[in-house]
Amino acid sequence: MSATLTVIDLDLPASEFAGSEIGNFSASDKVTIGVSADPSLLTDSARAITDVMDFNLTEADTVNRRFIQVDSIADTVELCRQRVSSRPSASAVLLDVLRSFDCHGDVEAGLVTESLAYSTLQAGPEFQEWLSVQKPRRRHIQDDSVRLARRNDSLEIVFDRPYMHNAFSDSLRAGLIAGLEVAIMDATITDVTLQGNGPSFCSGGDLGEFGLFTDPTSSHLARRLHSPATLLEILRTRLGSALGADVHGAVIGSGLEMAAFCGTVTAHPDSIFGLPELTLGLIPGAGGTVSVTRRVGRWRTCYLVLSGARLDADTALRWGLIDAVAAQ
């Protein structure tokens, strides 16, 4: 089943909703976007429907986490329509994964669902279409992609592929896992901070390594066996706000997904945030359907993926995606 896109005018009078198909709307394979000129003036009927929309758009200033303020509703809808039509299967799978986590809220179950969905999409036609025009796959073998620095009771885990904007390679993943395991096993470590060396915190997955697994079963099992997300959640449970991420530059894809697990995320003013996976025919696969959703809600997570939008640090702060913007 593949996703299509439909738009619901939330500013219709209450009589248009009562007893109508719109009033009985429920989640389906459709990407459904609600639009309103002013969310503060919605009728009770329309307000109830915003909850089941995949996300809602307005050009007005709003603190409602179900809504995204955009410069142009029409332009944003058209952008999303184009992206959904080019990657309908990935869009439909995204809806299922986000709605599932929204219903149960269980982190471990959410990570399993995400991994199964991501691995399935890797074997699907949309990812294979993207892969067919890429250069030959290669595995990054640098063995010093992550530096660990212990200072008293604090541990700094520093991504160290500056020339690649700390693209998340298998080697970097292994180094991160090793650092997180040290922090988990050593109870005297009471403060852990993720950082990135060079111009960016992490620019997302190393695209040259995408597609190395051709079997979705092996892909899923490898992802579950070597999952920084699970370890980050264990540390977050123990350390709370003392598990931090200091981010800057590109905080994209897996970089954002991992940072969002942390109890405290502090961003340099130059930080840019986004979830670009739909372009590849995929969904976030480093835990982002859990970590980002927990911070900003299902609606804004869905918007980030389907629109491919980039957020600046101030917007990320307003949304709750980060906790502070560092002084320059």
What would you note in describing this structure?
The protein is an alpha/beta fold. It has 2 domains: 5-86, no CATH class; 89-325, Alpha-Beta Complex (2-enoyl-CoA Hydratase, Chain A, domain 1), CATH 3.90.226. Helix content is 41%, strand content 17%. It is built from 13 helices and 13 strands. It has helices at 14-17, 44-50, 73-86, 88-104, 107-122, 125-131, 170-185, 216-225, 228-239, 254-259, 288-296, 298-307, 313-319, and strands at residues 5-9, 31-35, 55-58, 67-69, 146-151, 154-159, 191-196, 243-247, 250-252, 264-267, 272-274, 310-312, 324-325. The strands form 3 sheets. It has a 6-stranded mixed β-sheet. Strands 1-2-3-4 form a 4-stranded parallel β-sheet. Strands 9-11-12 form a 3-stranded mixed β-sheet. Helix 4 (88-104) packs antiparallel against helix 5 (107-122). The longest helix has 17 residues, at 88-104. It is globular and about 65 Å long. The model has no long low-confidence stretch (mean pLDDT 92).
Reading side by side through the largest sheet, how are the strands ordered? 5-6-7-8-10-13
Given as residue ranges, the uncertain stretches (5+ residues, pLDDT < 50) are none
Mean of residue pLDDT values: 92
CATH top level of the largest domain?
Alpha Beta
Helix content: 40-55%
Q: What is the beta-strand fraction?
A: 15-25%
CATH fold topology of the largest domain? 2-enoyl-CoA Hydratase, Chain A, domain 1
User: Architecture of the largest domain, according to CATH?
Assistant: Alpha-Beta Complex
Total helical segments:
13
Gap from first CA to last CA: 48 Å
Q: What is the SS-derived class?
A: alpha/beta
| Structural Rg | 20 Å
Order of helices and strands: EHEHEEHHHHEEHEHHEEHEEHHEHE
The shape, in one word, is: globular
CATH superfamily placement of the largest domain: 2-enoyl-CoA Hydratase, Chain A, domain 1
* Overall number of structural domains: 2
Largest sheet: 6 strands, mixed
Tell me how many strands there are. 13
